[in-house]
Amino acid sequence: MEKLTPMMKQYMQIKSNHKDCILFFRLGDFYEMFFDDAIEASRILEIALTGKSCGLEEKAPMCGVPYHSAENYIGRLIKSGLKVAICEQTEDASAAKGLVKRDVVRVITPGTIIEDNFLENSKNNYLMSIFSMQADYDCGISYVDISTGDLFCTGISKHELGEEIGKIQPTEIIFSDDSLKNHIKNSCFGLSIYINEDSHSYFDGSSSATVDCFGEEHIANAGLKGKESVLKSIDGLLSYIIQTQKQSASNISQIHLYSQDDFMKLDGFTRRNLELTQTIRGSSKKGTLLHVLDKTKTCMGSRLLKKWVDEPLVSENKISKRLDMIEELFSDFALRDDMSKELREIYDIERLCAKIAFEKINPKELINLKNSIARIPSIKQLVTESGHKNLMELSGSLDELSDVKRLIEESILDEPSFSSKDGNIIKASFDERVKELRDFSINGANIIKSIEESEKERNGIKSLKIGFNKVFGYYIEITKTNLKDFKLPENYTRKQTLSNCERFITPELKEVEEKIISAQEKIKSLEYEIFVDIRNKVYGEIVRIQNAAKIIASFDVINSLAQVANENNYVKPAISKSGDIDIESGRHPVIETMSKDQCFIPNDTAIDNDKFIGIITGPNMAGKSTYMRQVALICLMAHIGSFVPAQNAKIPLLDRIFTRVGASDDLSQGQSTFMVEMSEVAQILNNASSKSLVILDEIGRGTSTYDGLSLAWAIVEHIHDDIGCKTLFATHYHELTELENEFPGIKNYSVDIQENGEDIVFLRRIIAGGTDKSYGIHVAKLAKLPESVIDKSKEILERLEEKKISDNKSKISSGARASNVKTIQEEKPECSLAHSKEAIHVKEQVSMFDYKKDIMIQNIAKLDIINMTPLDAMNYLYTMQKEAKMLGDD
């Protein structure tokens, strides 16, 4: 350290306080990076790595980026999961004595971004804080989007963290202690979230940042009294913002405390399987429910709609309120169209407020705010003239902000400079000082023109001109041709010689120049001072502006949902008091919009409290998964408060929707496809209630036939006997259709198929009754498998079917079920599968049964399995199955 140059010592001192950041060290017109920072940044940013003498024998690795284009480079580093500390010169270099003072003015992290270039307009950028009361499982969580000022908080248990993180999907998480680390990492797996492992210190403050920022009264009014873990999480959140941004997030004006019970709970599997806001493959918005519903006209509305989709309501009153407002717009095309036109002219008011609070708004953006506010009276008038009760109630609390609009309108030029320090911002009519300086600046140009004409006449040189550059200021320029035989006036001083001309200055010209430049500098300084004052006055009304923005966003979302309902022929769902799900001609909202050129086949759904489990059989590709997903999505849309794709719909209030659809593995966590499947099923069986909707597809297909069938059978029984929730269960185990005869709450359904010789046509209709055919070879033929493979499959199938006993509909004996279920319970106790009433006790058998059973065991023991062909093994298996069934009948 002693050998380092003074500048590098300064760098190392600042870097020591920001070891976890890439330090952007300001040197003139560049941000420079050194040592390991330079090596890492040059690789990510793909810029040249050079070296700088630093006092050591070897040069320090160095790279740099121009300060005026630094945003793009910073954005790339942030997207790479890094933090960037911005170190600026904190004193004027010309006035500095020795080394210029420098310090970090801001630390940019994934969760503290406010720059437009780094943010998605239609998505919130949340920073989440988690505080754990180490003595138990209570956690306080809070999260904020500092670009909008929205702060939310709640208290949950550790095992609920995964669902909450999956719903919120923050870009950055800070947490209080290492006991949370594994919970957080497991919850974030597969999500692009920066986990800040060096954030513990932000929770150690002795004073309360929450009290300092909001006051005791606001905390009490927000319902936070006594919620220690929640308050501690907010303390850590605010401390982190203050220390990284070097100022308080003064646009965070309210704390919103919520309970998880306010919303339908959706686990990560369900969100992913239903593709609510991003697709399973590619994580794209296109192809999701959100994409279908999003016809919003403002960024604020788009973000709010996503929040509605992520947080379906469970309150009948709140759902009905949304539905009623949508109905009013749905039935009024003119209002809907006029509303859309007004909303299109509104900028992102929420994020403009953040720029005001962080003192980063420019004059053009202030004009954008003014123009946005100017649309509010028109929106209110449209709603008032419509006479719609619910919409009028919402617009009644919409502040027109006429005083804010008037302030900006009277003070800021309609077409101001982009930068607040470049002048040309303030209207001359707003401030007399600006008027005087601007008049002189305009007159100064006239004075220069007058001097030019005077010098032309005096010297008799018509081509003489007066120019200006930043180096010499104003000068008189005469061509060398005109200088021949020309006697220079005494007050002319030669300043510059060029190839074809000479440039001169005069005392008179310099005097005028000084006055003009002085006026220009004064007016820039004065205009900036006035601009800051106006910005501060607007900031004083920030809560009013934010509240108005929230209402505008609500109008935008309601208008969007009404427009989608109208375009796609949706219907207003009714809340079912009886608890039944009754959907007439339901459709999948996403698939029908993505296949406009094809006719989507609608299906009815009737699930009541008497027949609450539907076993659905039929071939692959016939539409089972689409049908089940559409039922789940229609129910979820109703809870959002949206119209639904159907002719009629009655939907009960559900506490949760669970889906287990499709196959995937998690090899990075050491989990096979089947293990992932069983984990998802365990999540459902351990958390579903009688008010839940469960969608299960092809459970048990990832293991052997008998294991899988036993699992599927026991799962259905457990849901029937111990949970009692509404369930759709698609399966290729045709044996499960026998459950309809054994349990009153189970009903069979199948996908209608039309057979044309050896070909099949999928009719996409769900009909009552099960099926005992899988059509696997037919589907393989549709998939263009080689004809030789298809023919061989048919031959093998015929040979295998010949070995079947004549009655291929005989059921699995209760003894076999008991044996299988016992094994499942021992291997997977958390699934709680061994509750089948018939599987608990096996009837005592007669001595003949024991004798035949012993013979079977002896025969099995004598098998030479190693030398058996697969076909021999299959034939023997069918023979043994036949004997076992006959033994069971005996």
Give an overview of the whole structure.
With 890 residues, the protein is of the alpha/beta class. The chain folds into six domains: 6-108, DNA repair protein MutS, domain I (MutS, DNA mismatch repair protein, domain I); 120-262, MutS, connector domain (Nucleotidyltransferase, domain 5, 2-Layer Sandwich); 294-401 and 541-568, MutS, DNA mismatch repair protein, Chain A, domain 3, CATH 1.10.1420; 432-526, MutS, DNA mismatch repair protein, Chain A, domain 3; 574-772 and 809-837, P-loop containing nucleotide triphosphate hydrolases (Rossmann fold), CATH 3.40.50.300; 847-889. The chain is built from 32 helices and 26 strands. The strands form five sheets. It has a six-stranded mixed β-sheet, sandwiched between helices. Helix 11 crosses helix 21 and helix 13 (349-357) packs antiparallel against helix 21 (542-568). The chain is elongated and about 130 Å long. It starts with 5 loop residues before the first helix and ends with a helix. Residues 665-670 and 805-848 have low confidence and may be disordered.
How is this structure best summarized?
This protein is an alpha/beta fold and 890 residues long. It contains 32 helices and 26 strands. The strands form five sheets. It has a six-stranded mixed beta sheet, sandwiched between helices.
